[in-house]
Amino acid sequence: MSVNSHDVARRAGVSARTVSNVVNDMPHVREATRRRVLTAIEELGYSPNISARRLKQGRTNILGLAVPELSQPYFAELFERIESVARERGYTLIATQTHGAKAEERRVLAEFTSHFVDGLIFSPMSMGAAELSRTPLSVPLVLIGEQISGARHPAVAIDNTLATRDITRVLLDQGCRRLAALGAFRSSRYRSSRLRLAGYRQALIQAGIEPLEELVFHTDEFSRAAGLEAVRQALADGVQFDAIVCFTDMLATGALRALADAGLKVPTDVALASIDDVQESAYTVPSLTTVRPDKSTLARCAVETLVELITDPDTVPGTREIPYEVVIRESSHFTRAASRCDPRVPLVNTVSLPSDV
User: What is the pTM of this model?
Assistant: First the structure.
């Protein structure tokens, strides 16, 4: 038997109107009453009729978040921050994952924007700008990441090319000359991978070093397992390198394992640097030199841009570039006695990049 608001009202000893006020997060409800109603809702397993609320109010006060993988630490940390900002603005956040599959991305756009949410924050992996722009949507959409270029929707992202160029320069400044790139996708579907590869190559060219295809280690995903397998294969093939620019911290974690299994020490035999600065990167052995995107600013900009679009559909917010910094840790620090790179080059300290990008 289904539970309705009148059942909750009887359990909590309040009116059905009060239950409605609590469900809709109205500010004038006393805190003790609110707690009593919420307890009754939990005990009875009551689920408000979202479709009815939307018909009546025109809004659900629910935002959607769709990312490739919530199991990836970067997206998990981003979800935490977005959920916190959404709650501050009076919204509930519902998250889903697409696994980067085009069919799933289409499903999310169709189902989320038709029934459940007032707006969607979306990190596409397979859908291109043309397809996304011609997809009919009934609610506002904000993109996160640089996967889409030229789409008609606002986006919030760091400059992936510049960030990778900066982190590559850290290793070049240490004297490394045979730098590998880990994380170039075999397919061209993921634009962030292409942008990071471009930044890596730009840094090499600016340093007078010819980018070599044999030093580009391809993967199909940004995971620990992919990083482990790609570096193991490169070592088995006899590829010589003195540093690796990893396109994510998860790839770097896998690379650390592969290098350790081969008896190579980081950073004295091979230096490492990466991108994302997930919490894990400070606790690996050695800790990772990495790019730290301002995830809190990214989350706030994404939510506030979306709320602005919900409140005023005629608003035309532009793309926002989010600041980042380069964090120097142990994986790129060389000792004079053991370094395979030039020990005369001074250690680069943490670089804070401009916040007004």
Answer: 0.77
Say which residue, 311 or 114, is predicted with more confidence.
311
Residue (of 114, 156, 148) closest to 131 by Cα position: 148
Q: How far apart are CA 50 and CA 64, in angstroms?
A: 14
Ordered structural domains, the chain, with CATH? 5-48 (1.10.260.40), 58-158+295-321 (3.40.50.2300), 160-293+324-352 (3.40.50.2300)
Residue 66's DSSP bridge partners are: 96, 122
Average pLDDT, the chain: 85
Sheet holding 243-246, edge to edge: 216-219, 179-185, 243-246, 271-275, 289-293, 324-327, 351-352
- Which neighbouring-strand residues pair with 107? none
DSSP element (H, E) containing 274: strand 271-275
Would you tell me how many other CB atoms lie within 10 Å of the CB of residue 284?
Answer: 19
Phi and psi angles of residue 216, each rounded to the nearest 5 degrees, phi first = -100, 110
- pLDDT, tens only, 263-302: 999 999 999 999 999 999 999 999 999 999 999 999 999 9
